[in-house]
Design a protein that fits this description.
It is a single chain. The protein has about 70 residues and is mainly alpha-helical. About 30% of the residues lie in helices and about 0% in strands. The protein starts with 8 loop residues before the first helix and ends in a 5-residue tail after the last helix. About 0% of the residues are buried.
């Protein structure tokens, strides 16, 4: 272990002076549940996609989009 504290999105945003709010919510597993908890209608929700590609592999968002909606 290197002794460094884990860095997550809140720490990255704060270090760059980006304003943000954290919203506490129960565990949810899909977009309909997320919208119900947040009070945001599904048609107004913004989807964020985060993915990791190991090593030298690549993936395009077009390839991911071709898989269809989640």
């Amino acid at each position: 272990m290197n002794g460094l504290a884990p860095i997550g999105p809140p720490e990255v945003l704060a270090s760059r002076g980006v304003p943000f709010r954290l919203h506490e919510h129960p565990d949810v597993t899909g977009p309909v549940e997320i919208c119900a908890v947040s009070g945001v209608p599904l048609e107004r929700a913004v989807r964020t996609l985060a993915f990791a590609v190991p090593g030298a592999a690549t993936a395009s968002t077009g390839e991911l989009r071709a898989e269809g909606p989640v």
